[in-house]
Amino acid sequence: MRTPLTIRFLTSMPRSGWLALAIFALVAWVAVPMAHLMLPESSPFFVSAYTVTLMGKILCYAVVAVAMDLIWGYAGILSLGHGLFFALGGYAFGMYLMRQIGTDGSYGVNLPDFMVFLDWKELPWFWVGSDSFIWALVLVVAVPGLLAFIFGYFAFRSRIKGVYFSIITQALTYAAMLLFFRNETGFGGNNGFTDFKRILGYDITSAEMRLILFGLSAALLMFVLLLGRYLVTSKFGRVLAAIRDAESRVMFIGYQPLWYKLFIWTLSAVLCALAGALYVPQVGIINPSEMSAANSIEIAIWVAVGGRGTLIGPVIGAFIVNLAKSYFTVEFPEYWLFFLGFLFIGVTLFLPDGVVGLWRKLFHKEIGRAEDVSAPTPPPKSSPPPEPAVQSASIDAKGAAA
Amino acid sequence: MRSLISGALLSLCFLFGSAHAALDPAVLQGFASDDFGERLAVIGKLGQIGDDDARRVLEALENDSLAIGGGKVLIYDGEKAIDAASGVALDAVPDDIETLTVNNRMRTAIEAAKAGMALFSADTAVRLAAATRLRDSVNPVTLPLLEKALSGERDGAVRKVLALAVARGNLGSDDVAKRLAAATTLADSGDPAVLALLEPRLDGTSEPDATVRAAVSDAIKSIERRLAIADAIGTVFTGLSLGSILLLAALGLAITYGVMGVINMAHGELLMVGAYATYVIQGLFQKYLPGMVDGYLLAAIPVSFIVAALVGVLMERTVIRFLYGRPLESLLATWGLSLVLIQAARTIFGPQNVQVDNPSWMSGGIALLGDTVLPWNRIVIIGFAAFVLVLIWLLMQKTRLGMFVRAVTQNRSMAGCVGVPTARVDTMAFALGAGVAGLGGCALSQIANVGPAMGQGYIVDAFMVVVVGGVGQLAGAVWAAMGLGLIAKFLEGWTGAVVAKIAVLVFIIIFIQKRPQGLFALKGRFVES
After folding, report:
1. pTM score
2. Same domain, yes or no, for B345 and B430?
3. CB-based contact (8 Å) between B298 and chain A?
4. B66 lies in some domain
5. pLDDT tens per residue, range A213-255
6. Which residues of chain A neighbour B316 with C-beta distances below 8 Å?
7. B109 and B160 co-located in one domain
8. pLDDT for the residue numbered B524
9. Considering only CB atoms, which chain A residues are within 8 Å of B464?
10. Which positions ≥6 away from A81 have C-beta within 8 Å?
11. What is the complex's ipTM, to 2 decimals?
12. What is the domain count for chain B?
């Protein structure tokens, strides 16, 4: 068992998985930038700015979905608070972006516009250092991480689980949303942050910056997939799955579930925050509605659509739901909620294991050969195969708790 | 009563001479003067005359249609002129006609004069309103009027108001005895404005007499105490009212969650269904029974219950039934149901909020001291919540269905073993929970906006109530709802509404850590899965 970490890491995924990842990296880092910058607009392979931004956005969502899956699919904890961590990451980086506007705001003062509007003369204490890029990155990780750690410590210590946990995470998110809606909180109230101009002095609207952000989102997704893969195939991942399936038994054997849950919960929150920090400069706005209950629940449906307890499932789910969303909201805005609503119902009733589960059921493929798990998603897919150990997680397969 | 009124009328006639004789032109001539003081004096005199002619002249003056022409005071509406004194129409409009300009002081004087007239009206309500209006702006002109009214007034409520008004006026009197009496009388007031009036009188320069100062200080203390009590009552009342709203929103959830362990995220939308049912009933009444519009709410109560219950049965039969024992999945599926219901409401009724009016008998309120008013619609809601609670309690404790529901809540498989049709009980219980949510929606339609997304605002609160109260416990839900309502309103007093709400949520999160089972846990030994 004393295999070096690097080897363990490399062998956590079969060769085909690495190949898929390499193809994905090639597409995201080479093909898309070239198609965006070099091809003429008339070319059929031209990738428009809209598409790059949309894909970048969905890549961020995919990261959130994988983070959600780590906690829900592998630890059986349904969080309705991931929208909060996502938004906190976005806000933390948004503070930096607001400071980068400098004196180009509508009032020409070196203060964010909304502070001028509130007649504040100087930055409040929690904005100190917000003009430093490094400090912004620290905040992005530290604030949501700390909040998740403290909240999780107390919640898991009191052995709050299942629906109760879901509801109090929802309460937490709701409280935070109310807090951020206040102007006096110092984060722009209703309107949040917008009108960003620069990152590190470079124009945020330039094609190069767009591609860099897109590439970083792709990199983050690959990193999260690899990390997730490593975690769930490790001993840690097995204990986690055991806690999910029979927490009391795990405790009786002598494990302390608190620290396992707390680690994966905090990690999941931090990953969400990183995705949020990448999301904000691409979309150009962050406001408290990101913390609404609906957003957090929608994250859960991405995971459920793709397939809980698999790592590629959430990515597929995020792409399916969000592409459908951008299609519906343009073509038939009034039917989007119907579609989403019936998706929620249909998936929980008929597809408990999501698209990945459906694929397995239909084709009875040998596990490990399923790289071409194809979903109707045009962008390049990184498809590490579904992991062998995972017996498609239906958390309460033991039957009615009655 | 009738003889009393006619007696009052009779005495009025004696006071002011015969009522229907024309006005004395000499009185009105003051209007022709350029001196505003003289004009004010005329207004005062008209107020004392107080008959219909005087009122007509005052109203004309107020509407900028009193004019001077040909040496007479005329009421001129732009086409023909009427002699203000005699009420006779003139054959021709004089060439030199000129409308009187009315400045703000004159307007105030007109107001006071009209209110003075109302003070001697035969209608008690009119007298009370006039006295209340004058109380807030006593001046040397109105003071004698008020004193006279006080001496002739028989109605207790009006007397009280008049006494306060007179006392206010006398506070600045030169007579020490009068000031002392005024200060003592004012101690009975509950008006913050009186407080502001009294406070400057505490120092020696404005009030030379020490005994009066002491009386003033006593009066201030007494008023402050009374205001504090009124304020506390008001806060408790709004707290209870918020608690009742929370309770109505949560009761249905307490049933469905308690019995079936199903997290119904569409519960808020069942409230919305109830509210829209009320809206539809209101529309039907307006269209077909316009004479009975005020009664629409009574018809809406059973209808909202039935409509929401039917929607609930549909939800249970088609979706939720398949998800028993999988709480997290039922959470997602019911969220999907809620989205569908929201969009359905949008498609049917449009995305805007719809207007649901309070019946006329629910408007207004009981005025306490100071600014504290207990609105009728809130009182009705508190009563309604109590009514629904009693209804559910009876249903749960006294009927066979209630017994089955309780049995299934306690031990589903055991209940099944002894022959309780658990599947049917589930459907019935879900229908009941949904129906109660419909009732809640009907109540909410009276105090909150009715729109497609209205339910989303209540779902978190409703869950908090259920979770704090303890699952499957009606008593727990009641205590939790009232407690949370009161805490929120008391915090609101010093932190503002949003911070109070955040504080309550944080409090709940901490509370759950300490008592994961809620306030009232089911007794017994349970093994966690």
Report:
1. 0.75
2. yes
3. no
4. yes
5. 999 999 999 999 999 998 988 899 999 999 998 888 999 999 9
6. none
7. no
8. 54
9. 167, 171
10. A151, A169, A170, A172, A173, A296
11. 0.80
12. 3
B331 part of contact set with chain A, CB < 8 Å: yes
Instruction: Return the pLDDT at A401.
Output: 35
Contact between chains at B336 and A340 (C-beta distance less than 8 A): yes
Chain A residue numbers touching B325 (CB-CB < 8 A):
396, 399-402
Q: Residues B450, B413: one domain?
A: yes
- Residue of B331, B422, B499, B504 to mutate for A, most A C-beta atoms under 10 A: B331
State yes or no: pLDDT of A386 exceeds 50. no
- Which carries the bigger pLDDT value, residue A366 or residue A123? A123
Say if residue B405 is in the same domain as residue B276.
yes
Nearest CA in chain A to B338: A341
Tens-digit pLDDT profile for residues A282-325: 999 999 998 988 889 899 989 999 988 888 999 999 999 999 99
A236-245, B183-192, B245-254: least confident range: B183-192
Q: Is the pLDDT of residue A402 over 60?
A: no
A168–B460: do the CB atoms touch at under 8 Å?
A: no
| Same domain, yes or no: B258 and B310 | yes
Measured distance CA(A248)–CA(B120) in Å, rounded = 82
**CA-to-CA distance for B231 and B215, rounded, in angstroms?**
24
Q: What pLDDT, on a 0 to 100 scale, did the predictor assign at position B525?
A: 54
B19 in a domain, yes or no? yes
In this prediction, residue B520 carries a pLDDT of 66
Number of folded domains that form chain A: 1
Distance CA(A245)–CA(A76), nearest Å, equals 8
- Write down the residue that tokens 């428009």 correspond to: A48
Round to whole Å and give the CA distance between B264 and A49.
42
Q: What share of chain B is helix, strand, coil (3-state, %, to 5)?
A: 70, 5, 25
Query: Is there a single domain that holds both residue B325 and residue B408?
Result: yes
Mean pLDDT of chain B: 80
Q: Which two tokens stand for residue A264?
A: 């994966």
Q: Does B356 share its domain with B280?
A: yes
Q: Chain B residue with minimal CA distance to A396?
A: B326
**Separation of alpha carbons A223 and A228, rounded Å:** 8
Alpha helices in B418-473 (DSSP H): 422-444, 456-469
Residues on chain B touching A402 (C-beta within 8 angstroms) = 261, 324-325, 412-413
Domain boundaries, position A220: 27-39+47-363
pLDDT tens across A23-61, in order?
A: 888 888 888 888 888 888 787 888 888 888 999 999 999
**B320 vs A: CB within 8 A:** no
- Residue A203 forms beta bridges with which residues? A198
* Closest Cβ–Cβ partner in A155, A178, A341 for B501: A178
